[in-house]
Amino acid sequence: MKAEQFTKLKALLARVEQHSPFYQNKFKAAGLAVEAITTPADIVHIPFTTKEELREAYPLNIQAVPDEEIVRIHSSSGTTGKPIIIPYTARDVADWAEMMRRCMAVAELTAKDRVQITPGYGLWTAGIGFQAGVERLGAMAIPMGPGNTEKQLQMMMDLESTVITATSSYALLLAEEIRKRGLKDRIKLRKAILGSERWGDKMRTRIREELGVELYDIYGLTEIYGPGISISCKRGNGLHYWDDYLLFEIINPKTGQPVADGEFGELVITTLTKEGAPLIRYRTRDITRMLPEECPCGMAHPRHDLILGRTDDMVKVKGVNIYPGQVEDVLKHIEGISSEYQIVLDREEGKDTMLLRFEQQAGFDGAHLERNVKKYFKTKVGISIDTQALAIGQLPRSEKKTNRVMDHRY
């Protein structure tokens, strides 16, 4: 932790102790006196904040300023329980716009760019977050929002969009439609800024080649402003995060203890300057690691690795913990397999079964690929599975996030 980060952390602790009933109750329950936090190492004595606690705080019990200072709210989808509602002050909105502007600058956008924004608007953070960053940079924002692929392609051609922001799943869907319709010569895209879900090397290669763009990973979550808290640079080796606004830690998700530099674990984030809904040691459930070496790009802001997966993405099959990232790691080593896959879990006669469905490239023998995947998966992951090769386009496509795991066991 840098000295200036610790100074901001101390100010944050004092602020929430005075103005946040949520943290007043939390610190009291933990027996924490904020004046006892005297060194950066003492951060381990501060209790974590969890997603479950934010759901219990519904709708606005996380708020740490008076109502008249709140200018906006955003919300998570609430697909797995109560939505999490996050209030923003004017400063929060401005800080987030600045982080998004930095992301656009790292991706080397200029005022001459025309940025087609396909993520959703409304309560979701992505669309309006991208728009704020693009406008702050001085580029042209094209606020399309999600879906309506026909209109997306028409506007992309007519307005000569140079940059697209999207989920990786929707970027792939658009790339496939452009190829099918023979529109590549009419598309002016040169960059794509993609986020909201993890995506593997094969998917990156397909999007890069079919759209003919430079790719940038952007990361964020509703609880921590939204997208734009980190982004990959042109070197593509990890994502730079804004350590003047945020404090990142990596912990062992089982023990809660810090891991060594360079080890994978769960990302924990503290919002150093946020006013409306400050979060202290928030467990994101995202799996990554810090990259302590200096980036060849020369940026001073530190880096974390790509998101490997989420702690709640893990499924247990035949007693073995499996993450979608492990599946992608198997498939990327086998020639002839495209980017899309689906895991189907079931139970037969009281025993787990796993079917791995994947799309094969044209000109490869499906039965041979099925045997190879089955063998390689057994070697790498340690369990026997069933496999099914499909033609490209047979697995479902999504305008948002792709659901990779279908669990029919419960």
From TrEMBL:
Its EC number is 6.2.1.30. SUPFAM superfamilies: Acetyl-CoA synthetase-like (SSF56801). Residues 319-409 form the AMP-dependent ligase C-terminal domain. Keywords: Ligase, Phosphopantetheine, Phosphoprotein. Residues 59-270 form the AMP-dependent synthetase/ligase domain. The keyword Amino-acid biosynthesis does not apply. It comes from the Bacteria. GO terms for molecular function: phenylacetate-CoA ligase activity. Pfam families: AMP-binding (PF00501), AMP-binding_C_2 (PF14535). It is an enzyme of class 6 (ligase). InterPro entries: Adenylate-forming_Reductase, AMP-bd_C_sf, AMP-dep_Lig_C, AMP-dep_synth/lig_dom, ANL_N_sf, PA_CoA_ligase. This is Phenylacetate-coenzyme A ligase. It comes from Sporomusa acidovorans (strain ATCC 49682 / DSM 3132 / Mol).
